[in-house]
Fold this protein.
Amino acid sequence: MFGWEWPPHILGGLGPASYGIARGVVNAGCEVTFVIPKPQGDEKKDFLHIIGATNTPIVWRDVDWDYVQKRFGYCMDPQEYYDLRDHIYADFSNMYVNDMGCIEFSGRYPQNILEEINNYSIVAGVIARKESFDIIHAHDWLTYPAGIHAKQVSGKPLCIHVHATEYDRTRGNCNDDDPTYMIERDGMNHADLIMCVSELTRRTVIEKYHQDPRKVIAMHNAVDPLSPDIVNAPVKRGTDEKVITFLGRITAQKGCEFFVEAAARCLWKAPNARVVMAGSGDLMEPMIRLVAQKGLADRFHFTGFLRGNQVYEMFKASDVYVMPSVSEPFGISPLEAMECGCPAIISKQSGCGEILSNCIKCDFWDIDAMSDAMYSLITYPVLHRYLQEEGRKEVAEITWEKVGQRVVDAYKRVLGWN
Amino acid sequence: MKTICLLFEIHQPYRLKKYRFYDIGADHYYFDDYANEEILKRNAYLSYIPAAKMLLEMINASDKKFKVALSISGVAMDQFETYCPEFLDCVRDLVATKCCELLCEPYAHSLSALQDSEEFLRECKAQSKKIYETFKFRPKTFVNTGFIYNDEIGAEVAAMGFKGIITEGAKHVLGWKSANYVYNTTAKHSVGLLFRNQKLSEDIALNFQGGLDARTYMSWIEQSPADEKVYTIAMNFDVVGGIHPASTGIFEFFKALPRFAEEKEITFSMPQEVFENIPSVDTISVGHPISWDGYDKDVSAWCGNELQHEALRAIYSISERLNLTKNDVLKQDYSYLLSADHFKFMSTKYGTYNPFSPYESSFDAFSNYMNVVSDIQIRLKQEFPEDIETEELNPLVKQIDNQGKEIEKLQAQLAEAEAKLAAAGIAAEAAPKKKAPAKKTTPKAGK
């Protein structure tokens, strides 16, 4: 598998999803080698083998065991370095490499991301020659070129996992010559199997990336059960007023302006409610201004970006979670909110809605329906309690183990093993 | 001789429009007129009217040997009056043949039998009255919403004076017993009890497309044990022409029934004839309510989850108080909200999406309904101040009522006296004439 993020060093939803899928696949009886750009040494890797792209030589350097141990010992066995070194396949001495013959990766999303993606695919060539495997699985567009390279080197089938598309990120405003779009489409054209995180994304892939529907399948994400310390953490609540929460990047894609409009309607009618907008983003300031214009600033709170357990604390202190995304390939946060016992309202344009039934769904633009759902949840305790209990049960059934089994079944179909 | 009791159920609820929370207290109209009219007319033209004409034709063609029973809910009759009165004429023609019995059910096709016995009684009375006013027919047989039945309902219905009840032949109640006999209820004042033959009914209602023909169908009845006399076959009327469109041959199937029945010496009867002529073989006790719904034959589709419990509690909690009002519009709106369909739309028994529901999910159905209930609660508060308990309210309303009657009585006496005076030719007329209109306004203000 090729990935870009791995817990605990995560920048978005890709890391946990890649981790969950890999763990599920291992659980279903497969051995997994996972390539990430830059391991830090504290990755969770007890169940699979991790190779760092930044630890893989592409230029031959004569280094002794102790030196390798000293440089890379924190995250790899020196023997592996030598094994990889034996599979350098071309002369890359014109590339910018360090004393180990390796390319330095940031492992983040830097300005020169396209160059980093290209370097990653060069490294993938070395790894693909050294490792033995049956199928290649590439997570998100950053790793598609690496996947294609590995397929060409090994002749093994390529499965790509579409966690998001440029089409969604730009709300449909992307051109055919957009580099990200081109990388995505190229990856899809070369893939033998395309897994999308939802039926919604699957349709985008078929319609906007012109893929053969037969090789595109929906593979919904799952969510990890909450750790006991989060479950048992006390709920921090200062008032007995009802709390309606938005949590996510405050950007156009997340439909934040629809949230503000709907929440305002609800606040005018329900005096005992407050609204929280957690997260940051380019539309935060316009949203603050919009709230002030409506004269609701005293009951409308902006928290800024929340980290780690703060997210769960927020969910536990909320009565309603709203995800009004204009376009959301999957959207894991409603599942997390439901785990915390907070009923969710989600837009029909969110992929996770396809596997959830104990939540309220409405169109992202239908602020009447959205505000009505908010009002119902804070006014009719029975509805709140019902969705809380049934939602918790429902999410508990959505596990990575099941996803892993489905992924492996799909592999077998591609390989013709069943 | 074996006999068939054929029963059709006709009901359409007043579906609610999208009623948002900001409409609460601002908009007192709840119903989706467009959808209600469209659905009623579509069903009427595809199914109800042609099917009623078919029944009439069958009665006439069989020399009145073919008999049938219909149960039309009060809310459906209200809608027919508004949108499709010609169907009511078809039913009048059927009733006029004396081969069509009309059954009584709760006016709003409600769950009152399970929730509130006073409301249940009121609805049954209202329904009997409605049937008499519309068709000049006094119903003697009772069939509850969704064929819901238990011993308590049996006792209440018997106390209202009905001669018999029809319910579902639920296997978990009948056990080894056959549905094809007349039974009687457990109450002290016991009445007849007919159980729907589930297989014969569902062969038509659900599985007709399989190529069923009338000869085979009748031969099943013929081949059943000789002492099983009564076959109660019941379904929704829209099965004929609606669920199974005319192109499936459903009309021809029904039209052929009397002929093959005669061949095999099977007759048709109306339920009241059955209760009069065929003695009961046993008493049957039903503890938990049964219904004709789904596989479970219980009431879980209407009151199976907490949402439904809450909605039922909310609407029935104001029943007593609401019936003290003289505001007929409010009463009518309330009655339309009792229809069982509203609660079925909230069911999560088969998932949160219900294909027959106008809502996208059970949760939508719940919040929409609760918003409407919130509004009707506000209207009730405007009717009677909140700080007066319902128990206190009752005598107060009665007192006002009595005073009104008293005033009317006195006014009548006054008018009489005036008339006598006038007749006696006494000239002093001017003074009492002025007094009379001033008094007339008082009872109105009192109300």
Summary: The CA atoms of residues 141 and 183 of chain A lie 7 Å apart.
